[in-house]
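Side project, low priority. Logging it here so it doesn't get lost.
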Amino acid sequence: MAQCVQSVQEFIQDSFVPMVAVLCSEDAERVTRKNSLSFPELLRPFCRLTSEGHLRDPNNQVVVVKGLRISVTGINTQPPQTPEMHRLLSQTVSVCQPPEGSPANVITAGDYDLNISDRTVKAIVPWYSDWKETLTQLSSSKYYTATTPWFETYRENFLQSMPASEHEFLNHYLACMLVVSSREAMPTEQFLKLSQEQHRIQHSGEYTHPKWFIPNTLKYYVLLHDISEGDEERADSVYEDMKQRYGTQGCYLLKINSRSGSTGADEQMPDPWSQYLHKSSIHNPEIYEESAVCNAVENNIGAEEDGLDPSFRDGVSETHPLQLDQPTDAGYPSNNASQSVNNVDVTRPEKQGSVISNTTPTPRGTCLTLNDHDHIRQFIQEFTFRGLLPHIEKNIRQLNDQLVSRKGLSRSLFSATKKLFGGGKVPEKSIAELKNTAGLLYPSEAPELQIRKMADLCFLVQHYELAYNCYHTAKKDFLSDQAMLYAAGALEMAAVAAFLQTGAPRPYPAHYMDTAIQTYRDVCKNMLLAERCCLLSAEILKSQTKYSDAATLLIKMTSEDSDLRSALLLEQAAHCFINMRSPMVRKFAFHMILAGHRFSKAGQKRHALRCYCQALQVYKGKGWTLAEDHINFTIGRQSFTLRQPENAVAAFRHILINDSKQSAVQQAAFLREYLYVYKSMSQLTGDSSLPQLPLPCLHSSQTRVFFGHERRLAEGEKQAATHVSLDQEFDRDLSPLWRELEERLVAVANKGTVPITFQPSQCCLNNQTDNLRYPLAVVEEPIIVEVVFRNLLKVPLALSALSLLWKFTPKDFSDPQGSTAGETITNEKEAASLKETTALNDIIDTQVIPQFTITAEETKVARLKLLPHKTGELHVLGVVYNLGTGEVDNSEGSLAGDLMCVRGQQNLEIQGPRLNLTKEEKTSVRYGPDRRLDPIITPPMPLLEVFFINFPTGLLCGEIRKAWVEFVNVSAVPLTGLRVASTHPEFFTFGSAASDLTPVTPTAAEHCSAYKTVAMPPSVATVSLVSPAAFGVTSGDRPVVAEIPLSQGVLGPGEALQIPLWLRGPDREGVHEINFLFYYESTEKSAKLSHRVLRHTAFICASRSLSVRATASRSNTLHGRERGTEERQEGEEKNGSMLVFVDVENINTSEAGVREFHIVQVSSSSRQWRLHRCINPVGDKDSKLASRERGKLCFKATRCRTEEATSDKYTFADLNLGNEQIVSSTTPCADFFFRRGLPSEPRRGGISTSNASQMWRQSGTDDGVTDIVKKCSDVELDIIVLWKGYVVEDNKQLILEGQLHVALQTIGKEACSLSQKEETQEMVLLKFKPDVPPPVSKPSLEQLSHLIKTCLHYPESYDHPFPQKSLCMVPVTLTLSNCSSAQVDVIVDLRHKTTSPESLEVHGSFSWLGQTQYKLQLQAQEVYRLSLKACFFQAGVYNLGTPRVFAKLAQTSAMCETSQQSAMPALIIINSV
């Protein structure tokens, strides 16, 4: 049970107190009425004795009486009838509520911290979680159990309103005070008259009530003197006469009213009566809501003295079970019986039954001083000690004597009880065996009743041992007579007396109480007595920590006849479960739910709400969602009934936001209830602010914000730039790529450096972007906020009038300080009204979505637009909308939907990323800001739109296509500095500045070639010199950023510009993602936004076309000999020449639809070499390749002239195979050549190892040895193969054209147009030791074998007469050419290397005559001729190519000579003549 203020002993003692009646004369009543009090009310606060009393028992033992309280009531107090008593008890419980502001009680039970609150509902609703502070406050308190003052008040009033019955005497009157005023003319006669009236009431037989304890009732004569009006001397003389007549112990002079009411009005006197009389008066529930009721039970120990007005304490109602066929009105003294009867108390029930309005209570005791209070207190003490206690002592002795003499027992009842109970115990019959004898009545002189009467007297004066013995004796007599009502009463009081005995000589007989309760309830059908017995026993069991037994007892007493009683007892049973040694928390919660239900049936809405809220603390968050929903639903309804709409809305909100497992029908009912309560609350409060709506669920972190206009769709052949849109998914991998492109553009615009303040442009912000800084938006450009809604319910939701809430601070950014230009503006008031307003549209135009329906369990996005018209700082706060059910059942559904539609908001609160940089941030949980909803509106900026015309989606590898791009400035601000960067700069070109841009329109260029062509028959190569700077190449790298030429450098507002764009298909087949980033600036520099960018992503599908492989071979002939002129010979020899073989294969698949390819031209580009002429094919027969065909072309290449080679320009040489020559040194051919992807091996004579800076060194060598050797075999010749493809499409033949690049780098090494796939590298074990430094680079044997070029000069045939001369001598010249730029040591060995039969077959039987080994030294680029003689023995064909040449650089002494590449077979025919 709940914790009580009183101890159980004090509670039981105050439940059974001596009763004293009062009879007042009219004058005496008038004296007390000056203080707005009757005489019993005047005495009530002073009825507890502050000192001990003493009396002697029949054995002459002293009995000490401590803390005795007496009850003084009017003699004609009429108890209320049963319905009236139930109503008064209900009102008593209803008034007693937990006071506002008192600290909550917290029970720590297992894993639960239960807030069994003494506060209002606001403190214990499920979303109230501030328990730690309360727990801390109570940690020093010894009380961890909750108090239930309403139960204590109910119990006190119930016990004190118990009607007097025949089977017990505890609430019968023991004495009667006769009160007469000293102003009476004949006070003695008035006393006589009152005494006769009391005697008539008690003994005439006219009245069955009130009940009197004994026939000889103590009469106590009180002379009431009014000090302010009466004659004190007369009062004293009358009192002296009274003492002579009634004795000093039977009368008293009480002097009161020491001051008049008017004179003492200013002085504030204590009012001890309020806590007793206020408790009984019924307050208006409406008034109680506003002001907390002062609960006297908790504030003053005296609160338990008398909790109910005397007007409904005594007597029984018409239908009371103890009333036996008595007339309704005749059983009570009425005010017609005598003028002296106290008629004030008669009207009390009528007054208390009415509802008191909100009026100030009448002040009481205004004529009394503190001395008067002492007089009253002294009067009660004198009456009790000198009158009442001696009277009780005398009657106990008399009853004891009567019982002893009547039953023939010994003198003392103590010895008698020893004899009675010394033997075996008499077996008691069970209740089922006893017949119903509840109606049996004993005569008043019956000895059984005399024993009971003596027991009750002893119990009232705290002589519990004698009382227990008497109750035990009476119980046996009643059971033997089968007087069950009397027996139950004796059992009940015997158990209580046994418990109250000091020293606990015997244990508490709980089975006595169980038998008494069962008898009262089942046999006697008297629930009042059973309830009293239950309340007493439960309190006793609780004091003995037998909480389980107490809970069982309390639950047994619940029944359908009284909801209020059942609710209170169930609540106490719940507290018993929570106070057990092992708290049964779930049982507590379950019984609190039952109690709340019964409270609700009893009309106690506040207590029902409190019970449900306390039970919810156990059920919530444990997975019992259905139970939790039921409790919250009940809390919502009860709160709404109690006019607590905020709590009702919060409870219904809790049902809706949880992951509900309810059916769709139930969820729809919850939603309708919530909308109704919410709408009622908004109408009651009338507050213009918008509360938070729980539905639908708003995923704030998934909010995306887009700055700028939505993308325009393609118009005809025009394809708009993709840019960024909300329809695109954010690609985290592409984000750094776009940032890098923008950095390159910014660096170019800022002369090669990126500013420190640079931040990449972000047009679309989401939860993966960097949102730590304020985003920048542009005035007059929309801001689109995409919010994600999730409907958690199984029923659709209908949202309407959906828009954004925002706050805006105007600022002037033209001022360097950015001063504020106005006050902060918000649209909350406009959004709260259901009517659409355009008041703030001149500042920020807010889009409103009229209808937005979300189906069951759907996730749906809404895009809301804002259009700012002024610069400043904008903060998007949330969304505002009307919420309604999406169900329309009939034609009137729309009207019902409007009625059930509420307006509210949800805030967009986004948590930023967790900070994890510093040590402090790593050790704590801190989050950075997320400012995606807080854009800064900047001044106007240009806005560019880009359209592509005739832009292809598929190309052949290397195919050239001409497209057009259109730039449109759609803003009111001119733009400048237009540039573009791309991830694939080799894919496109805008042409060089010197390019011929004709034709100037896309339609005029539809059937024209993308190349610049010149009519010219095949001939020697046409040579032209071109500087890379003319095509935007200033270094070895390809240009990433391209400038786009604008007329006068500016594109004005509304202007458009179309320029050609050449595209070249990627060299690798497959789908290629090509990204463009267009950059532009405003002509007026802004401090906030320096530039803007526009993104475009193109996807190109590349198909296979041709594969080109090329090799270079050194020519072994000296060209001068062929030409015949010495001058040209020297020039050619010095320049040198080589052969270039180009192998072309058609690898195009038939699906591409290309019928055949024509090789129309082969061009070269190099600083050292150029193609000279074509050796084959002749005509165009070998230049056509159908599918899977191959062709091989051979070209002669010569070195460029010295002046060409030393310049920084590239030499382009064109060899056309048809009648049209393509000028390869112009756009677009040269553009794509310079933009080509760099080959895998480094160019410009770099070293092919990974560490090119390290040169091969050896003792006695120079650093440039490797370079010298390498240059002998380096070529650095780029071959450009230009082709045309013929495609049949829709019965039309289309001509495609393109170019492929092959980079020749080394003689004899094949190069391919398709980059070879890199071989997968083998997995290498991790090495934790430092790597060995790479070896120094040495020239390879292949490179060293190209130092010397050899050539044999001899006659092709030689005639010799062998019959005449057996030896044939033929002169042969060996030409040695130093290919390097350094001095070379050469060894020529003429000896045959082997003598195998195979070599003899090749060489034949010939030998060299003369010196067979030479050691020569050739200077740089020197040509040396060595004359030799070959000797033949017979006619035949011989190979003269047997000389072996070894060479090394002269400056490298430690290097061995390397064998040079052998020449081609040199065959000679020897004829015999």
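Brief comment: The CA atoms of residues 73 and 310 lie 6 Å apart.
Revisit when time allows.
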